[in-house]
Amino acid sequence: MEKIISFIGFAKKANKIVIGQSSLKRYNKQIYLIMVCSTASGNLKDLAKNLANKHNCEYIETKISLEELSKLSGIKILGITDENLAKGIILNKESISIG
User: Fold this and answer.
1) Tens of pLDDT along 36-57?
2) How far apart are CA 58 and CA 72, in angstroms?
3) Among 14, 39, 49, 69, which one is most buried in terms of CB atoms within 10 A?
4) CA distance linking residue 69 with residue 2, whole number of Å
5) Number of domains in the chain
């Protein structure tokens, strides 16, 4: 889990993260990973899956809150726009992923 927190922190510092559903809906460039919190509503989870299909990227539903992982409050959905950081999170997802 610590690696995931580090990767998300790197993405924040490099401005390679898109936070929130409205920002993700408007984002037209490549996204490599979409993460949604397990406590999010069914509609938000469906939106996340649709956005992952639209951007042809990985989708992760986290069992640990995104607030804890990102150190930001009120976060239910986010996207990673850096390919290497997304790969790092995907490779270590078993510690945070539901399935």
Assistant:
1) 999 999 999 999 999 999 999 9
2) 22
3) 69
4) 9
5) 1
What size, in residues, is the chain?
Answer: 99
pTM of the model: 0.92
Can you tell me the distance from the alpha carbon of 92 to that of 99, in angstroms, rounded to the nearest whole number?
Answer: 13
pLDDT mean over 4-20:
95
Q: What is the CATH number of the domain that holds 73?
A: 3.30.1330.30
* Nearest CA-CA partner of 74 in 45, 43, 40: 40
Give 70-86 pLDDT, tens digit per residue. Answer: 999 999 999 999 999 99
Q: Is 28 exposed, middle or buried (0-12, 13-18, 19+ CB in 10 A)?
A: exposed
Q: 75, 34 in Cβ contact below 8 A? A: no
CB count within 10 Å of CB 29 equals 7
